[in-house]
Amino acid sequence: MNSSSPELPIETSATSAEAQPEQAASVSTTALPAEPNASMQEYYQLQQDLLKVTLVLTGIIFISVWIFYSLNIALNYLLGACTGVVYLRMLARNVAQLGRSQSKVSSSRLALIAGVIIVASRLDQLMIMPIFLGFMTYKAAVIFYMLQTSIMPSSD
Amino acid sequence: MNPTVAAASVLAAALAVGLGAIGPGIGQGNAAGSAVEGIARQPEAEGKIRGTLLLSLAFMEALTIYGLVVSLVLLFANPFA
């Protein structure tokens, strides 16, 4: 491919950016429109699907832990799973706001799991391992959703 | 707690969070930047791009959380104390 071809849009835009750097800078910092378009319905559907899968997995694992271990451990697991659901909602909201507002990609959601782990290490009634594994339920839901959409792509 | 164990635990906790956040931080920045660039190029695919970004970030941020949990356990529930 001839790199000096004038019809290449990349080279044309690069040349214009060099010629007018202040204009290129203003274009690069333009935020995305505040109103979500119709394709965002797919994203909201993904959020709902992930939430449903997470809740179903949480229910199944909660009952299994209750049967095979004890109610105390199951409640610890449930606390971690609820934390994971809140974390996933915060992450989804953050991704939805990405590029729309001036707010930075914050890591305040990491404070959520940090606070829960610290409380669990301070209180005798709480255990760290069931809470952490419960928190990781959202990841199992993501893996399940990805496998489901990979095996059956037309089902969604 | 033995002072040597305490010092090693604090050092290990700092390294676990600090070093463990470098890779996911770079990866998340690259992914988010590429996603916004893709949305700007193809606004009609915004939902699909944001969905893929959400799944990617969910996987990447788990690596940071692993280091965070290890450091919190070392600081507040040290098994070697």
UniProtKB/TrEMBL annotation, chain B:
Site (Reversibly protonated during proton transport): 61
GO cellular component: plasma membrane-derived thylakoid membrane; proton-transporting ATP synthase complex; proton-transporting two-sector ATPase complex, proton-transporting domain
Function noted in UniProt: Key component of the F(0) channel; it plays a direct role in translocation across the membrane. A homomeric c-ring of between 10-14 subunits forms the central stalk rotor element with the F(1) delta and epsilon subunits.
HAMAP family registered for this protein in UniProt: ATP_synth_c_bact (MF_01396)
Keywords: ATP synthesis, CF(0), Hydrogen ion transport, Ion transport, Lipid-binding, Membrane, Thylakoid, Transmembrane, Transmembrane helix, Transport
Cell inner membrane found in the keyword field: no
Bilayer-crossing regions: 53-77
Organism of origin: Pegethrix bostrychoides GSE-TBD4-15B
Localization: Cellular thylakoid membrane; Membrane
UniProt key word Iron: no
Residues of the V-ATPase proteolipid subunit C-like domain: 11-74
Similarity section: Belongs to the ATPase C chain family.
NCBIfam families tied to this protein: ATP_synt_c (TIGR01260), PRK07354.1 (NF005608)
Protein name stated in the entry: ATP synthase subunit c
Primary subcellular site in the record, as a coarse category: membrane
GO molecular function: lipid binding; proton-transporting ATP synthase activity, rotational mechanism
Membrane topology: Multi-pass membrane protein
